[in-house]
Amino acid sequence: QVQLVQSGAEVKKPGSSVKVSCKASGGTFSSYTISWVRQAPGQGLEWMGRIIPILGIANYAQKFQGRVTITADKSTSTAYMELSSLRSEDTAVYYCARGGRGGATAARFDPWGQGTLVTVSS
Amino acid sequence: EIVLTQSPGTLSLSPGERATLSCRASQSVSSSYLAWYQQKPGQAPRLLIYGASSRATGIPDRFSGSGSGTDFTLTISRLEPEDFAVYYCQQYGSSPPVMYTFGQGTKLEIK
After folding, report:
1. Which of A1, A98, A110, A117 is the best substitution to test chain B (most B C-beta atoms within 10 A)?
2. Would the CB atoms of B92 and A107 count as touching at under 8 Å?
């Protein structure tokens, strides 16, 4: 049973960057994709991007292009999401989630990490 | 970009009743690429339905999904107290650029 465990809560200043980690256990890390989804307080879910660890290829939502970088370390089965130029609107819970590599399996996220609260405040 | 619109925004029902949640897409979506999630307060979303109608592992059979094209439905046949939560539909666009979009959610509350 794959589990995704994320790093702890962060408080950041506007204009700075944050890097959140997501460690997978109990499965084959490289055979899947890892996506990052965020949820602002009281709001819905927003996909930010994903990485295919075995290929090291990342895809990003247009909204976050140039500001987000998703990477993966196959040796530790850990994915990372770095968001730069933080502003107050980036205050949210950030989730990682596993998807399949292609076809219908790529269309769904299961399981999800527990979430990491990132607070951006001066 | 495909937009998913969920209705109603809030649904007030009693345990034992039937819940019907709608997800409408702005363009046709492959059924294989439509999923539903449940989210309870303070928790991560949980996959309920994938491929529009297949239940994820461990999901009770009171949850069912249906639909095709632009109209999809999540039905909960008899509500249990633990089913009161927020539900999201989600679609996957595989054509470059890769894109995942979520509906805005339906809150299912106890009447």
Report:
1. A110
2. yes
